[in-house]
Structure formats: C-alpha cells, structure tokens
Amino acid sequence: xxxxxxxxxxxxxxxxxxxxxxxxxxxxxxxxxxxxxxxxxxxxxxxxxxxxxxxxxxxxxxxxxxxxxxxxxxxxxxxxxxxxxxxxxxxxxxxxxxxxxxxxxxxxxxxxxxxxxxxxxxxxxxxxxxxxxxxxxxxxxxxxxxxxxxxxxxxxxxxxxxxxxxxxxxxxxxxxxxxxxxxxxxxxxxxxxxxxxxxxxxxxxxxxxxxxxxxxxxxxxxxxxxxxxxxxxxxxxxxxxxxxxxxxxxxxxxxxxxxxxxxxxxxxxxxxxxx
Length: 275
Hints:
Layout: H1 21-40, E1 47-51, E2 54-58, H2 64-87, H3 91-116, H4 122-132, H5 152-160, H6 169-188, H7 191-194, E3 198-199, E4 204-205, H8 214-222, H9 224-240, H10 244-261, H11 265-274
Antiparallel strand pairs: 1-2, 3-4
Helix pairs in contact: 1-2, 1-9, 1-10, 2-3, 2-9, 3-5, 3-6, 3-9, 5-6, 9-10, 10-11
C-alpha cells in the first residue's frame, strides 16, 4: 500500500493514493519554505504604493537581492503547481510549468552570481530595469507596453562563461538551449507535444486527464528535476545573501534528496570529488 498524502498545507485530494516520492517532495518544500522565510527577512519588505484608486505592494529599493527573493517565491509556487498537475494527470500543463521553472532557475543563477562575484554588469542592470518596470502607469492606468527584457541567449552566454561552469561555453549554451527548447512545445502548443495526449482503446485525446497513461510515469519521473534544481538555486541564493550556513545546509540536503530518490547521480559525483 502506498502512503497517503498527509500534509494538509499542500491541499491535495486525500482520497488519492500518492506516489512514493511525495514524502520526499513534502520534505523538500518544507526545507525551501524555511529557507525562503530566512532569506526574505534579510531584505527591506515591500511597501504599500498608490495605484490608481487602489494600492499595490512593491519593493521600493528594487535591489538585486529583492529580485532574487521574488524569483525564489515564484519557484516554490511553481513546484507546488507542477506537482499538483502531475499528480492529477495534467501533463501538458506540468511541462509548461517546468519550462517556467527552468527559466526562473536561470534568472536566479544569473542574478546570484552577479552578486557573488561582485560583477553586476550592464546586462544585469538592463535586466533589473525591465524586471521592475510596471505594466500600467500607476497614475493614469495606461498600459506601458515596452518591456525590453534582455534576450535569453545573453543570459545563457553569461552563465556559460562562469568559472563554475564545468563544460566549455559552447557546450553549456547548447545544453541550456536544448532543455529550454524541449519544454517550449508545451508553452506554445507544438503538435508533437499535443499528440502525446492521443491514445487508449479506443484511441482519443485525453482532455480531462492523462492519469494512468504511459506518459504519466514519464512525467512523474521528470518531476524530480525541477525539485533537484530548486534546492541548488536556493543554495546559490543563500551564498549571494552571505548566508554560508544556510547554503551548506541546502547543499547537503540536495545530496540527501538525490540519494533518497534513488537517482544518486549528484551523490556519486560528490563522493568521487571527495575521494
């Protein structure tokens, strides 16, 4: 008998039997939640700002660290969403969320390494200007249509040149692009991705859920990846916040997560480096 989900904060259907990895995912989300609250407390909080006839909350300092906090918030929310979608068989939508998470992961590394290496470039400044730009004028409510976000290829090129990058720059860029492109079909509705919904006896499009289909096991297996990468992103963010203790704790948890999942790739690699 597989264990049932018991974490009431997650909000899943208690009548559904969950996958064995759910216990590990629960532990991961608790670790990330604690880490997030600890890092969040290190930056000035958002302030109430007038917006038309109402108000919104904004970070008035618009710092790199505050941008990282917002990206981390979106990452944890995205992990919850991907997990809910996977558990309920909405695999196309899970793939779309995982593309979002992949981009968020790149953004966090791009910003965090700029702080860690004391290397806030013009590319970082352009990114932050676009990131903090409002969608609507707070006084008139008119749409501010121009958001000149730096091209993704430039962010990947920056990451590929880092001294921490184990591959040559061209290989790293190709790897980033391959992962990104592989999930883009879920965002843009590519035919090859949509046709994964077709099957069964009689064959038909599974438009209510793909739970129990062969594709479900593939996407359950793949869910490990955004969780694994999120732990590393949080560890790197902790470095950017000069919280070495938290970073070390998260990196140790990342190895344990990998070992307990049965994948063991990062665990073996770490062991070989220490040998």
